[in-house]
Amino acid sequence: MRRLTGDYREAADALAKALAIYRDLGDRGGEVEALNQVGNLQRDLGDLDRAVAIHQHALGLAREISSSWDEAHALAGLGRCALATGRTAEALEWLRQAHRIFQEIGASEASDITAEVHAIAAGASSPP
């Protein structure tokens, strides 16, 4: 919530604490969810290299623990980072992978990703 309201410093502190707690408890599901949130925060702050690294770590962990929901969130994060750096084709690939997983598991996030993909595709096909 703090990230959404623009209180990035408090969001970073809260996420760091949560991540440490999840790691101390050995809660890998909580850890991967927190990692995806940290990646989103880093993207919001403009540190795209760090955001990508964090989402890639989250993706690997999500796959290790077979968490499709977290895998899709990591893929979506990677797609949004790619889009932020102007790599439209790569962004679409990541987002389409996330969309497929969200659809397979019946997650409501599928509709958000559908809208993003359509908007990106429409923008990519518009004349300059």
Report the order of strands and helices: HHHHHH
Poorly predicted runs: none
- Percentage of helical residues? over 70%
| Rg from Cα | 15 Å
Helix/strand-derived class? mainly alpha
Q: Domain count, please report it.
A: 1
Q: Please give the count of helices.
A: 6
Which term fits the overall shape? globular
The average pLDDT score comes to 91
Tell me which CATH architecture applies here.
Alpha Horseshoe
**CATH top level assignment:** Mainly Alpha
What would you call the quaternary organization?
single chain
How much of the sequence lies in strands comes to under 5%
Query: Could you give the distance between the termini?
Result: 37 Å
Q: How many strand units?
A: 0
CATH superfamily: Tetratricopeptide repeat domain
**In this structure, how is the largest beta sheet organized?**
none
CATH topology: Serine Threonine Protein Phosphatase 5, Tetratricopeptide repeat
Characterization of the model:
By secondary structure, the protein is an all-alpha fold. It has six helices and no strands.
